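Shift notes (night). Ran Putative zinc-finger domain-containing protein while the centrifuge was going.
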Amino acid sequence: MPDSPDDPHGHDESRKRLMPNCEEVHHLTMKGMDQPLSWTERARVRMHLVICHACTNFSGQMRLMRAAMRSLGQQEPNERKDD
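Came back to this:
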């Protein structure tokens, strides 16, 4: 496993601890929807979102989708009562 800062896969351990890559941010975003993230996980995600427009969009889309699903779940019983 390469240990140089030039490693395109983010395998440098010190860098990995400080700044997650997009894949890890996606994982943490999904994890955070189901359970609270630790303060270090939240901080790492926020640091990454400051510099990554794509992950910022992904995070926003996941929040929007979750809110839409909750809304549908709340509306469904009301729609059944009207039938």
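The two ends are 61 Å apart (CA to CA). The helical segments are 13-18, 22-34, 39-51, 53-82.
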